[in-house]
Amino acid sequence: MRYLDIDTAKKISKIGLGTWQFGSREWGYGTAYAGSEAKAIVRRALELGVTLFDTAEIYGFGRSERILGEALGEDLDSVFLATKILPVWPVAPVVEQRGVASASRIGARRLDLYQVHQPNPAVRDGTIMRGMRALQRTGLVDEVGVSNYSLNRWMAAEKALGTRVLSNQVRYSLADRRPERGLVPYAQAQGRLIIAYSPLGQGLLSGRYDSSHRPSNSVRLNSALFLPENLERATGLISALREVAEAHSAAPSQVALAWLIRSPVVVAIPGASTVAQLESNAAAADIDLTDEEYQLLADESDRFTPVTGPAALPRILGSKLRRR
Ligand SMILES: NC(=O)c1ccc[n+]([C@@H]2O[C@H](COP(=O)([O-])OP(=O)(O)OC[C@H]3O[C@@H](n4cnc5c(N)ncnc54)[C@H](OP(=O)(O)O)[C@@H]3O)[C@@H](O)[C@H]2O)c1
After folding, report:
1. Ligand 1 centroid to 202 CA: how many Å?
2. pLDDT attached to residue 324
3. Which residues pair with 165 in a beta bridge?
4. Parallel/antiparallel/unpaired status of strands 52-54 and 17-18
């Protein structure tokens, strides 16, 4: 495992573990997963040196936080624990109460990183950051983070907090490189951190899926990336991942992660449906890509132009209706 070079109280592994999958119906992994596999994934992650664990109050309506906390048990104090508040009513007392509730579901004395899950479109961050500041003062929260924030809003959040907002957790992978336009350079210049979510494009970059073999859970049925047309368009990128993977005796998913975390300010938090996937993802931290391999993948990623946004909506609906 490799770790981030940053001045935080605990070390942060370059590959973390995302736990939206834990206890969330939309991933469709079932009760055996929530009841035992999830715990086994966490225990193995610890053995492999993973320190960054990411959850949220909304994942499985609190179930993810509970499952993660139980699985970490006595190791809670030694990991870098990150959770998130969904800022539906972002006034300071509510933020404080929700922070306490998250910590209690997890069973943690301290949240190493408390993130705002997404910007509230109607309320600016002054009120929410007042609550965050209070949580930092009491010692329940160490670092504050945001998620799905634009660069301007991230900077405004820092101003409102009065100290650093350590990280911005955003969708970032070879299938979606928008964070490179402003967020990654900002993190580099200011000593901040980008936490890449959906770093495997929700499984697309593993090469397991194609237009004749699509995943069937609701997360991916509702995702434009998994439209048959986009799976076709991804063929070049997947072939390039396979080619580079072969040179490293690795899997395409590992190369996708290695590509992402090559930047010193980016960490990735892939989710995992099995212990074997977690093992593979953790091992990706040790893969060193050459400059040529890095560029080849960047070029193929540039050529990948999926149908997204409003244009994808009727197609998603049509493809769901056809599956019935
Ligand atoms: N802040 C936010 O708004 C936000 C949004 C989304 C996610 N997140 C966080 O980011 C984490 C990761 O994102 P994500 O779950 O959306 O996407 P992801 O990590 O890109 O994809 C996870 C899925 O990819 C497949 N996979 C994982 N490792 C694999 C491997 N080694 N080989 C082959 N397939 C593999 C698994 O699905 P199958 O085995 O079923 O194919 C797994 O469920 C989440 O758990 C959550 O903590 C945050």
Report:
1. 5
2. 60
3. 144
4. parallel
Q: Look at ligand 1, atom 45, and give the residue with the nearest C-alpha.
A: 18
What are the tens digits of pLDDT across the range 5-50? 999 999 999 999 999 999 899 999 999 999 999 999 999 999 999 9
119 pocket-lining for ligand 1 (C-beta < 6 Å): no
- How many Å lie between the centroid of ligand 1 and the Cα of residue 19? 8
Helix (H) or strand (E) holding 99: helix 92-106
pLDDT tens-digit map of 194-205? 999 999 999 999
- pLDDT of residue 312 exceeding 90, the answer is no
Of the candidates 86, 140, 88, the one whose C-alpha atom is nearest the C-alpha of residue 113 is 140
pTM: 0.97
119-127 — which CB contacts under 8 Å span 24+ positions?
119/87, 119/146, 119/148, 119/149, 119/150, 119/153, 120/87, 120/88, 120/90, 123/87, 123/90, 124/156, 124/160, 125/90, 125/153, 125/156, 125/157, 125/160, 125/161, 126/160, 127/90, 127/91, 127/92, 127/95
201 lines ligand 1 (CB under 6 A): yes
What CA–CA distance (Å, rounded) separates 270 from 282? 9
Query: From the CA of 223, how far away is ligand 1's center (Å)?
Result: 13
- Specify the amino acid at residue 231: L
Ligand 1 nearest atom to the CA of residue 200, by list position = 20
Residue 309: band (very low, low, confident or very high) from pLDDT cuts 50, 70, 90 = confident
- Report the interhelical angle of 92-106 vs 125-138 (nearest 10°): 50
Is the distance from the beta carbon of residue 280 to the nearest atom of ligand 1 less than 6 Å?
A: yes
Q: What is the pLDDT of residue 308?
A: 85
Q: Give the closest residue (by CA) to ligand 1 atom 33.
A: 206
Residues with catalytic function: 59
